């Protein structure tokens, strides 16, 4: 962490004005909200120095300061362009950047999360927060997770929250397929308050979805009349959830504590056709209750930062399965208890020639218990696991630019070693070694070697057995679609897995396209004793014939899909990613407008050159200050002395002075912080704007920013700084401590008689990633056989495509937004074997496109008060072209089990959402 003295603070204040970064803007309710002035910031950066400016001028509290640059980052304006309803929705929207594809599916799902650079107990702590509370989102590569006590198999998302924020949001949503048949609805309310000393959040949510049957899609599989109406394609579900989150910061000690709790209830009902009597419907009913609690405690300990997290959960589930002989139903119950505790210490114990040695120590204690009961089993299952784990991560800088070795760029090494002692599996080891190299400022290369021993989960070991009758299955041996029983549950005979991986990455910030990054990952994965939940295929039956039951005529009766152990798996994956964001069109040129002279003095044009800075009138500003600061508290200032544009901001919807807004303006003009800020700014501005500039009066840190590679003051940088600090906008910003709203050029400056054209250009974002599977093989024993899953000999899942892609893009302009999501899955094959009558299956390419249109009506209609303020209406359409994957056998015929409406009964999907923020 950087520590600054008084001179540095003065430099930061000047650079703050130089770049026009985010500052606090007062809204119509008197609340303070950070404003996004990224356009101004970008315009203020001198040529050739964009990278360092970010460090000194625009870094927000809570951003990560590490060697590896982010794979993607999004500021406040970018986040608004997504049109998300919560942070959870926001994370879904940026999935192309957060998904990890280069480690063959190890993790590969949702990333790990930090809030303001601090590890959290779980995503429950923040997932319901409105996106308006977020100042910035950063996405980092998997290796960064090691610095926070995580394993390097998922990307890291750091969410930087605004320091002051409050809102109540209410959201209702209705959805249904274009073909009808069922519908879904959601209602959610969220309250959040973020203040100087902490944050408080409450959220309640309800979801409901109706049943869809085969009859409603015209599917007929058997000759039994009317059975299709008793076979479901989409289950009937209902869920309720309530959660609360509380965070408190202790300013004196620098500590913070976060508490969260969640209660959830879920119900589901599905139909499996008719019993053997041909008249009794077969239902499967599920009910789940979950209780979760979490704790995060963060405290500085000298030069170290300590973070303790606890995540505890209890889940009870009940499944009732009607018997196929219509004699009643069987029950499967499970109860799980989990608690995960982790202590991490982050510090910089040594100063090396190239920088500080970064060290992370972590120690964890986990406990899990699974209890399951099955009315068809002879005995119940009870499994308990205690896990003690620890690790050490060290990152050592080897070379830095400017040092003797810096000619080759920045280089650092990261080493990790750890253990996990499990009560049922003994001690498991893990280690990794990685190198990070930045030969140029905009290019980062890394290589990591990872070794891990992993035990199967208790769920895989001890889940209760569930038999799903009359499941639709394609029998490769006969080439026919049949109804068979599918068995799922746990397997107590699983063993620990050993993983050996390599990962190579490149991250290039494009020099010709601002705010754009291209990334590439290459992963090599080798694993022994892999736990796998198989699917049914000819390769599966060949490898595990005891898992498939047939009658004497060879007709398929049942499939056992409980987890099993594969001897070895091998995979290689190449992934590419591209992320960009920005504004369309040329930035408007900044102009200066002169307001009428104020009651307190003459216009700035009469002031001596170099002192007033391009039209800023200090007499006018002083007159405004006197109106607020000389009026006793509790009394209403004489607003007739205030410029009209500013006066309108202080009135309520009836045109009367608003006490809350006046109090906020008084604090901004008359508070101690405002006075100190004004004095610091005035001193630096006087030095910069003098003719010639008085450079001796500037802090050394600021002078360093003005020097070129030869150590001399760069005239162009000095000119850029003078233009920024001596302009009307910069002066008003420095004097008032206030900036314009999103994309603005300084609202307060314009109100005070300054200038600047508001930037109303459309904002865009685009994220894309593409995965290429180069190898995916399974070896059943040391001597074979070997199954090439890309070639269709699949054991552990559905068909394995070689190519897959995800796309997220959108545009936002003056309150109106458009977001497009795309997914692509390449063609694949499943081999049917060599027996007579068997058939291969060919899976065609599938590309789907989703769109979301939304309008923030308050911004669209420029309504900053009244009902339209904070009101957003969204319309969405998933799978716009109603695309479904086509699956055919060797004769080009679509099997019944793969009819388009069976594999995707939803297709094109519509939804409308109304969201109101108070």
UniProtKB/TrEMBL annotation:
Gene3D superfamilies according to UniProt: TonB-dependent receptor, beta-barrel domain (2.40.170.20), TonB-dependent receptor, plug domain (2.170.130.10)
GO cellular component: cell outer membrane
Keywords: Cell outer membrane, Membrane, Signal
Coiled-coil residue spans: none
Domain of life: Bacteria
Signal peptide: 1-25
Biased composition (Low complexity): 596-610
Main location: membrane
Places the protein is found: Cell outer membrane
Region described as Disordered: spans on this chain: 25-48, 581-617
Descriptive protein name: TonB-dependent receptor
Annotated organism of origin: Qipengyuania vulgaris
Highest classification ranks of the organism: Bacteria, Pseudomonadati, Pseudomonadota, Alphaproteobacteria, Sphingomonadales
